[in-house]
Amino acid sequence: MSLRRLVATAVALLPAALLTLPTAATAATAATTASAPAVSAPAASAASAVSAVSAVARGPLRPLPVPAPAHDDHLTVTVTGTNGSDGTYELYCHPAGGTHPHAKAACDQLDGATEWGKDTFAPVPTNRMCTQIYGGPEQAHVSGSWAGRPVSADFKRSNGCETARWNKFSSVFPTQQG
Fold first, then answer.
1. How many other C-beta atoms can be found within 10 angstroms of the C-beta atom of residue 53?
2. CATH number of the structural domain spanning residue 161
3. Which of 172, 154, 164 is nearest to 112 (CA)?
4. Which of 113, 134, 151, 171 could form a disulfide with 105 if both were Cys (CB 3.0 to 4.6 A apart)?
């Protein structure tokens, strides 16, 4: 789990954890009031606070509610020229899901290709020397958000460099090649 997701989960769960304290404090106050002699208001509130804390500490701990996944990593993948797999697919990662036929494999491949400080979907540099070997008519457009960054990238197989870039994301582009 990334630090960003860990912090987001902790921030989301903290208010729920704090809301359970008044319930325990109310029960502890009722127990303290019923069994203790009359005391001044400040002393009673201090005693009930101590009782509430000790009651929470002694009692069984309940699991905190888990928030619904945030799906920060969501991509829309449009593929054309694939002999049967043309279409638009929704890909959600962490956890994997959506309309993509192989969401888990695609998310795993994207996780493996992601490097801190680098654009995962960067195009082939214009000054790169590439073999002029045509890789096929397949094309794809990917848009959405990945690793907290917006994505809008085009893919094709027009030369060796573009084909290698396509292959880097082969699980992301559903195709039927045989």
1. 14
2. 3.30.350.10
3. 172
4. 171
Compute the half-sphere exposure of residue 153: CA atoms within 13 Å on the CB side of its CA. 23
Report how far residue 75's alpha carbon sits from residue 52's, in angstroms, rounded to the nearest whole number. Answer: 47
d(CA 95, CA 5): 12
Establish if 156 belongs to a structural domain: yes
pLDDT (0 to 100) of residue 84: 81
pTM score: 0.59
pLDDT at 89 over 90: yes
CA gap 167, 136 in Å, rounded: 12
Q: Give kind and range of the element (H or E) at residue 161.
A: helix 160-168
Tell me how far apart the alpha carbons of residues 112 and 49 are, in angstroms, rounded to a whole number.
Answer: 50
Residue among 36, 57, 56 at smallest CA distance from 47: 36
Predicted local confidence at residue 70, as pLDDT: 54
**How is residue 87 annotated by DSSP?**
E
CA distance 16 to 145: 29
Domain of residue 45 covers 3-58
